[in-house]
Amino acid sequence: MDADGFIQIEELTKVYSSGPVEVVALRDATVSIGRGRFVGVTGTSGSGKSTLMNLLGGLDTPSSGRIRVDGRWISELSKTDLALFRRHTIGMIFQSFNLIPSYSALENVAFPLLFADVPRKERVRRAAELLCAVGLEGRSDHRPSELSGGEQQRVAVARALVNRPTILLADEPTGNLDSRTSRQIVQMLYDLRAEQGLTIVMISHEEALLREFADELVRLQDGTVLSQETLRGRP
Length: 235
Ligand SMILES: Nc1ncnc2c1ncn2[C@@H]1O[C@H](COP(=O)(O)OP(=O)(O)OP(=O)(O)O)[C@@H](O)[C@H]1O
Ligand SMILES: [Mg+2]
Prior knowledge:
Blueprint: E1 7-18, E2 21-33, E3 38-42, H1 49-56, E4 64-69, E5 72-73, H2 79-88, E6 90-94, H3 105-110, H4 120-133, H5 149-161, E7 167-171, H6 179-196, E8 199-203, H7 207-213, E9 216-221, E10 224-230
Parallel strand pairs: 3-8, 3-9, 6-7, 7-8
Antiparallel strand pairs: 1-2, 1-4, 4-5, 9-10
């Protein structure tokens, strides 16, 4: 598998039909993403960014077109293999942190491992290691309400990485944060990419932030890919 075609999105179309109205959320989108790249996705509200991300993460199925990840066509996976793909290949974070309020930071991070048959001791060890990687080693016992927004997003990042995915998908991860905290979070994603060997796809309407950290910028408009611009070459 050549490094440049790690993620291959081919002529992806998604049509939503709610009642009599059809919305073409994505139209013939073709994007190629190399292993280890940090790709920013931008575009106005309603341009299809989240639709693209949900298809890539296997949360939804396309109306037509296909996606290949690391040599496997996602649409051809069985239900079981798709669940495993979502658990072990993809990590996702969102604008809202979606943490469990009654759980500590450590328990939130360890939570996905409950479904992956990992013994308790190992769950705690791995969650602690990830909390350390996101700079929250001193906050393990804090509940979400006892953490700042930036810290909550760090917990969400740690949780997304606890199953050691190869791809991190981030949909407006800084949407609820001030500009200084936003920059810190994206800087952290940038650093984690190298440390954890990740490929990152991050949606944001803050183009300046993407330009500062991403290797490539994909621009969507009305569900079509306007451009895929290379900002930085391979190191
Ligand atoms: N489940 C759905 N059913 C019907 N239409 C939908 C659904 N999800 C999204 N859409 C429509 O598809 C289009 C693309 O939506 P999408 O959420 O991908 O946009 P977006 O670029 O992520 O926007 P934003 O920046 O506001 O998050 C929009 O016109 C939206 O109304
Ligand atoms: Mg969106």
